[in-house]
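Protocol step 4 of 6.
Sequence for phosphoglucomutase (alpha-D-glucose-1,6-bisphosphate-dependent) (Lutibaculum baratangense AMV1) entered exactly as in the expression construct, tag removed. Do not edit the line below.
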Amino acid sequence: SPASIQAHQGAWHVCLKEHGEPMNTNKVPTKPFPDQKPGTSGLRKKVKTFQQPHYVENFVQAIFDAAGDPRGKELIVGGDGRFFNDRVVQTVIRMAAANGFAWLIVGRDGLLSTPAASCIIRKRRAFGGVILSASHNPGGSEGDFGIKFNASNGGPAPESLTDAISRRSSEIDTYSIVDAPDVDLSRLGETDLGGTVVEVVDPVSDYAALMEELFDFDRIAGLFASGFRMRFDAMNAITGPYARVILEERLGAEAGTVTNGEPLPDFGGRHPDPNPVHARDLVELMQRDESFGLAAASDGDGDRNMIVAPGMFVSPSDSLAVLTANAHLVPAYSGGLAGVARSMPTSRAVDRVADSLGIDCYETPTGWKFFGNLLDAGRITLCGEESAGTGSTHVREKDGLWAVLFWLNVIATRGMPADEIVRQHWKRFGRHHYARHDYEGLDQDVANDLMQDLRDRLPDLPGRSFGPLTVESCDDFAYHDPVDDTVSRHQGVRVFFREGARAIFRLSGTGTSGATLRLYLERFDPSPADDAAGGGEPLVSVARAAGEISELAARTGRGSPTTIT
Ligand code: G6P
Ligand code: ZN
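Step 5 output, structure tokens:
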């Protein structure tokens, strides 16, 4: 049984620790850096920041110090292959050995997608994992880098732990590292590093096996065998190797289905963020070439997804709703859903589906970590975010390729084109028009003041009209976690209008320069026309009202958003 194997491995670890080759462990004196507070998803900074002497070491030591006694435990290590991944992975290995970990599982070449890391942490019942990634942020020597710690449930460290890491980073005065040459990560197998076993594993196999358990691979293979074509853009990031093995080798999609499949340190100079702006060619392909039934893309570390149906980009909010409504068609979810959750700015499309299924729908703050407790407690089965993240109980991260396989399974089972599935969904549940306006690179003080003044003005807003819209209610979103009773405040300002519209204001927690204000616009249409036109028109008045309420243009000096997705 897994438990006895685990116990056996535990004993073996101890034994190796006692008899392994002695190795020099250095205790290196260091001084704290003032800026090592993890954000929405770990510590993310410019590569140049991480390249400062001791910067990486300090943060990694802070993680180990805060996460609990590492001695005798197992740690998963890997990253999305961006610039500096290869160096930092070796540092983490040497430091993990010095800190007394018994066993390290490292993806070949230091690579692991975020969902695969989560999968392996859970499968091996490891202590946790160190994931090297700045997700969808650009890579290369001028780009971003990131380090995050995932706990033993496979999910991002909860806020209590990231706070502890941040506190530890501000007082750190030494770190431990063994004196050893680089471990050869190009070959599978085990190396002894002073009594710590470093096991290099194939980054894909455990993950692919999990996908095969969840989905009806025979049916999806049948879909491809019948001539179904798709395009998966791996954006020269981590998902290339995963998508090639799963889509092309196992499921028989035609060669060339996966494009930009080679992970590159600079992601080929592109921005590995799968949205209609950065993956515009996919949207255009699906407008122009009727031979494709689906196009999809994932981000730097493989946890985000973008779905494009024939002639239509499927918003992540709609995707979550459609998958929820069709989950009974997928083997892993055919027994029904415990509940669903969405982040607060995500549209309320899934709420309607949950309502019709008679299951709970939770509204959490932005950040995947907030789903962790609900998943662990068995309160939800599926969850998703407007920021192109969708996932389920199968791991504790959002999962890009999983979402694509889910869509393929639904398309194959219903025998219906993806765009038709979406249209029928809108017919049945109504349509939530949706868009996100990002104002990037704002002055931090300007952005903070805008949010603060907005909060101060909330009590006066209800009943006031802005163009054709009248404010019904508004608040500064706070989340009370029903599992551990923690309360997270100031998670974004919500303004609800009587006309079925909603505007949300929030500052991004993932940027690396200046402040980014996100304005999320939504408007419900109970009986939508039968066309796929984007959320533009119905949202114009919502955007105007939001602009007026927040004095956006006057305060930021911006006439229009930097990006609309
Ligand atoms: C990361 C997290 C997501 C979150 C997103 C929001 O991708 O993993 O859970 O939705 O950041 O980022 P923001 O920039 O809006 O804070
Ligand atoms: Zn990501």
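Step 6, annotate. The first helix runs from residue 2 to 19.
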